[in-house]
Design a protein that fits this description.
This protein has 102 residues and is of the alpha+beta class. The chain contains two helices and three strands, in the order H-E-H-E-E. It has a three-stranded mixed beta sheet, with no helix packed on it. About 5% of the residues have low confidence. The structure holds iron/sulfur cluster. Iron/sulfur cluster binds next to loops.
Amino acid sequence: MPTSTRRVFLLGAAAAGMAGLGVNAQAQAALAESDPQAQALGYVSDASKADAKKYPKYAAGQMCGNCALYQGKPGEASGPCPLFAGKSVSAKGWCSAWAKKA
Ligand code: SF4
């Protein structure tokens, strides 16, 4: 492979590696409810405070910790969610994109 192609390939591999680390890092900043994307999805760090009037599909018991999109480890207080890249959501949080775990 020509050197320039190889360099691009290696850079790509390094970037992919770093992205992978980012998803797993526990030091991610907690998602703030004031974050514009959090507000757009009605995210709250305490599911019991979800706006049930605005989001009638909310039902007690739904929380990030039992959402299909949640990537935190069981027992941990927070974890990554692909909808909020680079931030961690509270396991007890909720947003309007909540989906039942299969
Ligand atoms: Fe939480 Fe699921 Fe919404 Fe992500 S998609 S913030 S895990 S409820």
